[in-house]
Structures are given as C-alpha cells and as structure tokens.
Amino acid sequence: MKKLPKRIKMGLKKEAKAWDSSISKEKPEEVSRLLDKAQLFVASRPPRQPVSVRLDPFDLALLKRIARNKGLPFTQLMSMWLHEKVEQEKTEVGA
C-alpha cells in the first residue's frame, strides 16, 4: 500500500483521537444498546471459480503436510499462497 499524504494522515489521527475520547465517555449499557441496534456489515464478493491444476505428487503431499501443520485445508493454503504471489507480481509490474 502506498503512503498516505501527511495532511490525510494527520486528519485520520485527529479523527481517531476524537472517536477514542467520545467512546471512553459512553457507559457500558449504552454501548450494549447501540451494538444490539447495529446492523451487520456484509461485504459481497463474487463467487469463487473452481480451477483444475495438475501437481507433482511429491509437491502435493508436501503441501498437504504443511497445511496440516498450519491447521488449514490444503486448498485454502494454495489459494492464500497464490493470492500473495499475484499481489507481489502486481506491485512489481505496476499493474
């Protein structure tokens, strides 16, 4: 992510301090009441597309072992790694 301009950064810090000071004045009962009335924010994402990839059996076994050690499904780990690499390449290429 690129750095924010100094004036925007200072404005955000000022706003954060204002929020912190106003929140600290609220009573727990008031916060609970406001949270009960709040609507859940749902960010819609386009559906994922299935993709078929042929992998070397040794690589797949190693991938599954790494994923198991991390406590993740191997397909999720593959997706995370691929996303990280795509983001890295995107910033290097400047797309």
How would you explain this protein's 3D organization?
With 95 residues, the protein is mainly alpha-helical. It has helices spanning 6-25, 28-37, 57-70, 74-93. The chain has a domain at 57-93. The chain contains four helices and no strands. The longest helix is centred in the first third of the chain and has 20 residues, at 6-25. The protein starts with 5 loop residues before the first helix and ends with a helix.
Short description:
The protein is mainly α and 95 residues long. Helix content is 67%, strand content 0%. The protein contains four helices and no strands.
Assembly type of the shown chains? single chain
Helix/sheet category: mainly alpha
Task: Tell how many strands the DSSP assignment holds.
Answer: 0
General form: elongated
Largest sheet: none
User: What is the H/E order?
Assistant: HHHH
Radius of gyration, in Å, reads 22 Å
End-to-end C-alpha gap = 13 Å
Low-confidence stretches: none
Please describe the structure with a list of short key phrases separated by commas or semicolons.
single chain; mainly alpha; 4 helices; 0% strand
Please specify the SSE layout and strand pairing.
Blueprint: H1 6-25, H2 28-37, H3 57-70, H4 74-93
